[in-house]
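Deviations from the work plan: none for this task. Representative record:
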Amino acid sequence: MQFPSPVSLQWIAEFINAKLVGNTNEPATGINEIHKVEKGDLVFVDHPKYYNKCLNSDASFIIINKETDVPEGKALLIVENPFDAYCKIVTHFRPFEPANKMISDSAVIGEGSFIYPNAFIGNHVIIGKNTIIHPNVTIMDHCIIGDHVVIQAGTVIGSNAFYYNTKKDRELWYKKMPDCGRVIIEDFAEIGAGCTIDRGVSHDTIIGRGCKLDNMIHIGHDTVLGKNCLLAAQVGIAGVVTVEDGVTLWGQVGVSKTLTIGENAVIYGQSGVGSDVAGGKTYLGSPILEAKEKSRELVWVKRIPELWEKVMGK
Amino acid sequence: MQFPSPVSLQWIAEFINAKLVGNTNEPATGINEIHKVEKGDLVFVDHPKYYNKCLNSDASFIIINKETDVPEGKALLIVENPFDAYCKIVTHFRPFEPANKMISDSAVIGEGSFIYPNAFIGNHVIIGKNTIIHPNVTIMDHCIIGDHVVIQAGTVIGSNAFYYNTKKDRELWYKKMPDCGRVIIEDFAEIGAGCTIDRGVSHDTIIGRGCKLDNMIHIGHDTVLGKNCLLAAQVGIAGVVTVEDGVTLWGQVGVSKTLTIGENAVIYGQSGVGSDVAGGKTYLGSPILEAKEKSRELVWVKRIPELWEKVMGK
Amino acid sequence: MQFPSPVSLQWIAEFINAKLVGNTNEPATGINEIHKVEKGDLVFVDHPKYYNKCLNSDASFIIINKETDVPEGKALLIVENPFDAYCKIVTHFRPFEPANKMISDSAVIGEGSFIYPNAFIGNHVIIGKNTIIHPNVTIMDHCIIGDHVVIQAGTVIGSNAFYYNTKKDRELWYKKMPDCGRVIIEDFAEIGAGCTIDRGVSHDTIIGRGCKLDNMIHIGHDTVLGKNCLLAAQVGIAGVVTVEDGVTLWGQVGVSKTLTIGENAVIYGQSGVGSDVAGGKTYLGSPILEAKEKSRELVWVKRIPELWEKVMGK
């Protein structure tokens, strides 16, 4: 998330009670989770395993629970519990805003758009022109919907990222990370009925221009779909996935987190995508293989009895 | 869709700016998409691959982008872009009707039926007697719900057909085909929570008498379920599928488009049905096999190490 | 279900027109379906296959369609159609209560809890403190939601059990069993968007303390999740399943009915759990295997061509 305006490091250090070292002249322009950081960003790290990744990332300011050398041009904010500090900052800039109307006063709805009864449009939502929102749709705060978009009944845009701080040595293992990202639905995208599209943890979940989603599709936080993707019913995509332009996913395909599906790839129904797949090809199976390879494998399995008979006799 | 009353070919030709040839005396009684046409219907075709199928179908009047011989007793409406002509006609007879009430004035609700708060009942919907519609249900325009039906919370009846005109040489690859079909839920059918049932493209999606659907089931456009079918949670059925009487589909089964599942067939959980399956049998797997055949296959796979040892040595 | 106060057997016998034999001094304290009965309970049985199971269960009073020896200390209520008698009693004590408000007058909502617009809260629902209910959520009658719970948009709590009396020699094969159980969501549990959690048939469906459920998850009737379980999107669990503490189910996992998943088990995405699995291990596949065993199996399948070549020649 970008801050509304740059924030001085001194203010942040005082707010989270941190020891501030390094280049403290530049203000922070935003705060982000490590999987997507930019120059000017605050980021946090609390596990030694990720110290180097964070210190060497594009982030300029690192909230950390260790005294260490400051990378050139950067600053450290040293605290005992970086996760709590991160949560405190995010919650300050993105506080819980109650809603008591179906369409919030701060929502902006473009000319020619039609909102059916019973659709909920949260705070600061922006909806473009000639867009149709069906009944019982929920669009949570800060999401952005383009022009000529259709969102069908019962769909939820901007549900919370499924993203937890996990520690199994305490009574409650999972502690939700407050999310401050958005969902952006680009122009001419159409979303079927009963879908759920989670907001980004700190960046945006994006459904590209001209994408068509069937019913009951789940899209995880920070996942980005390119242009002209076609997703059939009951597809599920985890968080931080990149689906490039022109990809087709048939019904009930499942996609694991943080991977990339290349341009124009086609994945057949019920397949499970567990690693990056190259574009321009067709895939099948769980675990997934190129379709022709998987088809050969299925033929080989059918030949086992023949092989058995030859080797073992009848 | 049937027209409210027969429409003269001369009016249609002028409306879509078509050249009219052949038997122009009979009026058109309806307009349908090629997968389900009857005598008296208008149909369209724009791809040479499908010219013959359309010209030889039961449709009486063909909107086509080619000068060709007129089949006996039929008429052609020749235009440059048949898809646009089809859309223009459908949109004329089934225009977008805004909705600004939770229960539309044109909806008819039978005696003894109960509509919970927050259910949306669209224009021209007909609901029978002693039927219960739970909260946050959406029933879109023109759908027909029988007697003694239960539709549980969050379910969407009559979402749009997921059906697109596809051309990958333009900026937006997918152009939605306007649908004019309905969903018909017959008497004593029960639909669980969070389901989505798409309307037919030009005909009807039908859930047969006494069918029981669990939660989160997706039914595609123009699919027809016979009587007494039982579908467990998270089943997904694509478009134009025929499910005969008494079929059982267990949880998370996926069914591809345009196929038939025979009477009393039983499909076990997570199976993928990719081709017609005969009735009276039990099936398993993705791709699907008869259950006993699939079970044998699983046993054969477990024997590979034994075979390997015999052939290759330890 | 427990009765509001104990009910005399004489009253019940008259109400369902039953012949009463055995120990008729004690009153019935509740009525339950055979899979979960306690001392003091009424239960019903109508199929000879289950006579012994019912007569020897913990239930004190058996509605049965057969004259038979009365087990010691128990009583029989002999009727022609035990299922109808059971339904009549359940419907008497748990009658259909219409709802005409979004938040029923009999609902109790704790301090600090926030209900978004358009959430439906049914009769006799109890919601704890500091809980957030998002828009378009449906919570049906009698459910109990704890403190510090989040239920995201479009989710349905307390949908009907998918549980039918089946007889294929009548016109309508499936007859719904009226349910009188509840859903209980314990403190600090979080439920994603678009989920459906069915109420118990006669007992409770329980989501344990600190469980985190992603979007579009289906939980069947009478299923119990322990503490700190983590379920990813599109998981489906059938009825009467026991998921012990600390279990992780990744995306699109399917779980069959009446089984147990042991403590801290981890099930990878798209797996199908068809039988009990021991705790502390990791599983994969449909049908499921221990992950390391399944991985070996996948390797063996890839070796078939090598085996074929050795045995059959090129």
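Chain B touches chain A through 50 residues (CB under 8 Å).
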